[in-house]
Design a protein that fits this description.
The structure is a single chain. With 102 residues, the chain is mainly α. Helices cover 72% and strands 0% of the residues. The N and C termini lie far apart (32 Å). The model has no long low-confidence stretch (mean pLDDT 93).
């Protein structure tokens, strides 16, 4: 079943909400209200795993650096290399130099 138009509108509103934020402090305040501390930590860890993979680190190095499972690394790697390009775009903008084929 596809999302309803109302859900699509709500998703677009969330995207626009992020675009209204202008400083890291504002983003932090919004995330603190939007998500639980555990959810924020999950996103932090996903981005860190993506960053390490983007830099060419091996699964073993990523596990040693983050403690995440190989299944989680595999899932993040799939999105990093064959997803919508969001991870690579953000990592590039943060000044990381990656190995994702364009």
């Amino acid at each position: 079943m596809s999302p309803s138009p109302r859900h699509d509108e709500a998703q677009e509103r969330l995207r626009r909400a992020f675009l209204t934020l202008t400083t890291p402090e504002e983003v932090g305040r919004f995330l603190e209200d939007l998500m639980t501390p555990g959810e924020v930590d999950d996103f932090v860890l996903r981005l860190e795993v993506a960053r390490l993979l983007y830099r060419g680190e091996t699964y073993e190095q990523v596990i040693a650096g983050t403690g995440v499972s190989s299944a989680t690394i595999s899932r993040i790697r799939r999105f990093l290399f064959r997803g919508a390009g969001g991870y690579a775009m953000v990592l590039d903008r943060l000044g990381e130099h990656g190995t994702v084929p364009r």
